[in-house]
Amino acid sequence: xxxxxxxxxxxxxxxxxxxxxxxxxxxxxxxxxxxxxxxxxxxxxxxxxxxxxxxxxxxxxxxxxxxxxxxxxxxxxxxxxxxxxxxxxxxxxxxxxxxxxxxxxxxxxxxxxxxxxxxx
Length: 120
What we know:
The chain is an all-beta fold. The chain has one domain (11-29, 45-120). Helix content is 0%, strand content 28%. The chain has a 3-stranded antiparallel sheet, with no helix packed on it. Strands 2-5 form a two-stranded antiparallel sheet. It has a two-stranded antiparallel ribbon with strand order 3-4. A hairpin with a 5-residue loop joins strand 7 and strand 8. The radius of gyration is 15 Å and the shape is globular. The N and C termini lie far apart (41 Å). Mean pLDDT is 83; it is low at 1-6 and 107-120.
């Protein structure tokens, strides 16, 4: 572990998840996986924890990674929300421009297409 005795890993700036980014999913993701955190390769990189992503049929694990934050952006980790009607919604991890627009980057910095799903 890179930061076993430190106060924590450098984290990205975060912000709110937009309701429009939530998609309905049939069941919650599995528990998170434990990952070893390697040393960063570049000064200024931030650690993005590993996380689950919904591909439209099943949950897929995205390994954690050190990334260079995009300029003028904030990060939202994946999240789930159970609504009053009992339906479960999921928002994938994403980088957002300051105005809230989702940037077409996943934490690993690879393009991450949004699966087709009916949004409320």
